[in-house]
Amino acid sequence: MRKVVSPRPSGHSPALLLTSLADLLRTWLPQQRWFAGKGRDITELSLLSVTELHPACLHLLVSTRHGTSPSQPGDCYQLLLGVGDVLPPRLAHARIGRASEGPLAGLTVYDALQEPRSADLLLERLRTPGTAGPLRFERDAKVAVPAGLTPRLLDVEQSNSSLVYGGSYILKVFRRVQPGINPDLEVPWALARQGCTRVPAPVAWMRTSQPQVATLAVLQPFLPDAVDGWTLALESLTAGRDFADEAYELGRATAEVHLALAAAFALGAPTGRGNRRLAAAMIERLDTTSRSVPELVPHADGLRAAFDALAVLDSGRPAQRIHGDLHLGQVLWAGERWFVIDFEGEPARPIAERRQLQSPVRDVAGMLRSFDYAARSRRPWRPEWARRCRDAYCAGYAAQARWDPRAQPELLRAYETDRAVYEALYEARHRPDWLPVPMAAIARLAENSPVPSGSPHTPIPSFHSAQGG
Is 333 helix (H, G, I), strand (E, B) or coil? Predict the structure, then answer.
């Protein structure tokens, strides 16, 4: 039988516990998919918060730095660590290592999110709101979450960790934690208050008050029979099927969510000065990315021209809250309709930036890039598939929103270009083999406008699906 030894954080300071964990975490953290400091050594590591959830499970907030400059910002990560002298074979994949010194010397440390007992405890905490040290567990009083739901950790590549309970609920645990309310709690909660059913409503959440107030996890209904849009798109490409009907309905769903967001949050007036600031920020990102991704340099002038065209626009759509990282992987097809998920935004950007009011065209551009991504990921490349999806998506959006994103080509091109630059940096850092995919778009965007071929003023009724009405 496994012997459990409690490290009792109340009896050991974070600094003392760190003597047991520092070397293990310096090796383990960079291997995780959600670790932001890929390719950089951890030069400083500290424990910001330590809470004992049960005698063999510690909740940690860990700060890391990757440079010698004190002004260089660090990252904060949320960890649930199990501790014991013997690790069962079924948890071998969760092993982090054996501590060689400090209060945990001789004990094995592992990722407790992969242990059913610790996962069960998290759900029970959320079912019965309360506190544990600086941690607060809260829920929607109108929703009763049943006990005894079997946990399952999703084995997918993502920037967070997700537990599914009994096929009924999904708990997203934010690995990289930033101060403030996370949009993945704030936005779905506000949309639920608007009666928008395209987004699963939060039923419980976990937050901390130390070292700063921050959202740590969100529990939402799980759609067990759902298929994400990326999978559906690739199935369509593999089978040689058209995806225009699905794209049309997805455009309508996106517009429905945007309309609900516009009603839930205050709007910002469009101004030429705002466009100039936006263009300047895009140019700065391009210049910064070009220093890290030299493949961008030959196209820099053409890409900058797209942002210059945005800078001289006098108006645009009113700024509002948006999704912020919309693509085919962020939408689910279930029950003959589309759902939109993951309102966290781009995790690499500060929460304050992700909560800013922006043009809904940014979300549209993200989805257009996603259609192109899907088409480029299969051989032979089918540009006509991507073009038809893009046309259908914009037509569906226009039918629901009563305005067409293609009517603002400079804005659409600038946002799509900015997205492609972000993709190039991401792929260069995390998946170099995929870099040719955004680079193909970079070459196109540097030469001409990405606006779909259909006229923004001409209805396209043929894209209505059987579910659309």
Answer: strand
Q: Are 110 and 91 in contact (CB under 8 A)?
A: yes
Query: How many whole angstroms separate alpha carbon 368 and alpha carbon 389?
Result: 8
pTM: 0.85
DSSP per residue, 85-126: S---GGGGGGEEEE--SGGGTT-EEEEGGGSHHHHHHHHHHH
70 vs 115: CA distance, rounded Å:
37
Residues 389-426: tens digit of each pLDDT: 999 999 999 999 999 999 999 999 999 999 999 999 99
How far is Cα 150 from Cα 170, in angstroms, rounded to an integer? Answer: 11
What are the helix (H) ranges across 325-382? 351-354, 361-376
| Amino acid at position 14, single letter | P
CB 357 within 8 A of CB 320: yes
Q: Which two tokens stand for residue 436?
A: 């040719």
* Whether 115 contacts 96, CB under 8 Å: no
CA distance 398 to 456: 8
Of residues 147, 130, 265, the one with CA closest to residue 207: 130
* Domains defined along the chain, listed by start: 9-112 (no CATH), 119-221 (no CATH), 227-463 (3.90.1200.10)
